Amino acid sequence: MNNKVSIIIPTFNRADFLVECIDSCLAQTHPCEIIVCDHGSSDNTPEVVKKYGDQIKYIRRELDSGVHFCWLDGILHAKNDLIHINYDDDWIYPTYIEECQQLFNENVGCVFSDAITYLENEKKFGENLFTLTNETGIFPSKKLSDFNIKKLTSPGAGIFRKQILLDSLFVGEVPFSKNHYHGVGPDILFSLMSCVDYQFFGYVNKPLAVFRAHENSITVNADSDKKKRARIKNAYQDARIYYYINKFIAAFKIYYLAKYYYKIKKNLIKINKIKK
Hints:
Elements: E1 5-11, H1 15-26, E2 33-39, H2 45-50, E3 57-61, H3 67-77, E4 82-85, E5 91-92, H4 96-101, E6 108-119, E7 124-128, E8 137-140, H5 141-150, E9 158-161, H6 162-168, H7 186-197, E10 200-213, H8 218-223, H9 226-251, H10 254-275
Parallel strand pairs: 1-2, 1-4, 2-3, 6-10
Antiparallel strand pairs: 4-9, 5-10, 6-7, 6-9, 8-10
Helix pairs in contact: 5-7, 7-9
């Protein structure tokens, strides 16, 4: 595994916010690959991105097939093994990549920093979004999974292993899921599935990621609509159930039992064919 980071910026019709997002990624104290993935924008996003030249990689699709495909497209184009997804209306402070990256080792599945909201209409900062621990360091994954069962960490504040993201981004919906809402599900699975595959996670106890709250953001829109809030809650619940299914499979060696059953079934089919 190479220990370098690729930043994926999925975008759709947010040219005005995109500039601040890209500028913050280019201002990182640790060099990283920057990929803007634009699926179907009809505003002046292409013109905005063009000004950056070869400082960034631009992926443009005319068809918008949904947020999952946009994330996946960007990740598949990344040349590095560590991935940060930065939403197009948010930004990160200059030391974000450097401070998070240094906590990675072979046993760490992902690294988060704290995050803070920026209230666009009021032009001021809000509250910190989550505090996983009271110090910076490397901690048992159980602490992260327990937090995400009750609350939520956003991938916009995390750096993940590329393979975890690819395994968690389903082309359709999260398996066994009954509830769906605008890409909700895989975003929490990035954290939870990292806890299945790795013993530890890293955490920087300072808000190095900024999440912009504005009238067109999905979460702000959902906060004002009871039905949307319920759909989001149920979609996250289904993702957590999928996580527990995977935990159950790992804990009770279900894979090996299924493999053993498959071999028996296969041999029985052969025997029946011979008898006939």
